[in-house]
Write the structure tokens for this entry.
Amino acid sequence: MIGLVVVSHSARLAEGVCEVAGEMAGDAAVIAAGGTDDGRLGTSVDLIADAIEEASAEAEGVVVLADLGSAVMNAEMAVEVAEVEAVFADAPLVEGTVNAAVSATGTKATLDSVKESAEEARGLSKT
Amino acid sequence: MDEDTQREALSAVLTAIADRIELEKDHLTELDSAIGDADHGANLHRGFQAALDGADSENDPDAFVKAAGMALLSKVGGASGPLYGGSLAVASSEFEEGITTESSVAFAEAYLEKVKDRGGASVGDKTMVDALTPAVHTYKRAIEVDDLDPLAALSKAVDAAERGVRFTTPIRASKGRASYLGWRSVGHPDPGATSTLYMLEEIHDVAAEYLDGEAAVADAEAEAEIEEGSGE
């Protein structure tokens, strides 16, 4: 199993994405890391690193997704400092997380395969 | 400079930067409200206050800079956290053997590299890279090619950063939040380039306090030697 971490400038947005993707994730952990540690809009490397740790508890690795700009930068930093297997997926947040959640519980799911399915969402057309 | 003096100078630099950011925080936020999300001043202010506390207990120059960087990283909240803080934390290792003219060049280059690497920005994207790149290149050149002393080199670097900030005004942003504004970002200086200039100015002013004395001592010693030589 692969864990997921959802990073957003807004804590509520991150939680909402986890709520949506969680429906597809079965037993895989989908952890929100939104906002700063004092509840403002923004992101926090510490908070993301803690979420990666939490998501890795029963997983063979963690895929991290993020919304915009500095959230991406902070997510990449947290991945670098994490002491567990973690990768950043360059994908649209909602579609990418849902895609990743679907594949995260698969018996053959690996860090790379889940990252790949998240990134496949980049080409999705909505109409 | 012995290690205690280096530590004292670093502490003076950090305090001077924190004070300057406090003084300019409304101005930086105003710049950021034109092309960003109007939080640059407040974010940096929060970060540097945390950095003062975070670095306070460290004695070695590299540990001091690293602690300041880590505090910025965890307290700033926006892109400035990883860009200013994360880059400081990485570049700090250049000071492991202390602060010398050579290690200051290596530090400046490592810092610039990390900022570019992390932010994915190049010169002309209307970011802090536009002030930082000419400043670092000028500093390195002034020392290695023109053989200037560090203080004179810093002074040239500040001038280069100032021109870099001016250069950001008429161009269109292609990185960060400002890029979403497209042409509307034209006509405003970049807040990150501006705060980078402020930091360089403070580094220069503190260095002047510490290095001017040293230069004077070196001059006096050189003069004494010449006099001694001519007396023989």
About this structure: The CA atoms of residues 46 and 125 of chain A lie 35 Å apart. The beta strands of chain A are 3-8, 30-34, 62-66, 86-88. The helical segments of chain A are 11-22, 45-55, 69-81, 93-104, 111-120. The two ends of chain A are 32 Å apart (CA to CA).
